[in-house]
Predict the structure of CREG-like beta-barrel domain-containing protein.
Amino acid sequence: MIYPAKRTALLKECSSQSFCFPSQRSPAAKEEQGIKYQRNNTMLSQLYLSAGLVLHTLGSARPGHQESDAELLRRETLRLLEPAVEARMIVHETEWGVVSTISHQMPGVSFGNVLSFSDGPSGASSGRPFFYMRSDDPTAQDARSNSNASFAVTEAETDQCRQRHLDQEDPNCARLAIAGRLLEVPSAELHVAHEALFSRHPQMIDWPPNHHFVAFELHVDAIRMLDKYGPHIDISASDYYNVDFGRDSKA
């Protein structure tokens, strides 16, 4: 607690200082500091936007890839612009996650399964998460019985969290919970799913045909993202799918 006499002295001292606590500043000092903050915030926004345009065509983080300073700056720049952009970046930069379905073998119980996925070849984000699993995989069976599913991915897969020594559960290590419908990919679009999956997971090409692997796609309905301390961010499917990184950009 700051006692009245000391508070009066602090207000006089703070009238021309910027390091005081906001509650200790005089009205004139608060107004001046507010103008400075607004001016600095505008300058920072312009700087980040300019940096984003300059770095727009640079590549981004892959698991196991050491990011350059330019790549890290590009990522942080894009993250400031739009939550949907960050969500798309996380989906494209990660390669596995946990798919949860409603179990038909254990009625009333949710079933979580670690699965590899891809939303497109590296640098060609589509935002469409594709999966490749055996036809008799519990997740595939659940999806055929009830297509409602959720998909959890975390930025902890990338160097973004490791380089900052963040625990996987630290809110600053961004994570997504994606809700949607897990449906088998129709034959007309199998080439799209296979290109996305095999380019990022080449081992899948040699998986035995007699194990009857099937491609699935999660059709996104809604996304909930936590990327900082504070409340989560809800992202609509339309905002997520409508993100355009540009023809020559690397999402």
Summary: The beta strands are 96-102, 110-118, 130-134, 148-154, 175-184, 213-226, 233-236. Confidence is low (pLDDT under 50) at residues 1-25, 33-63.
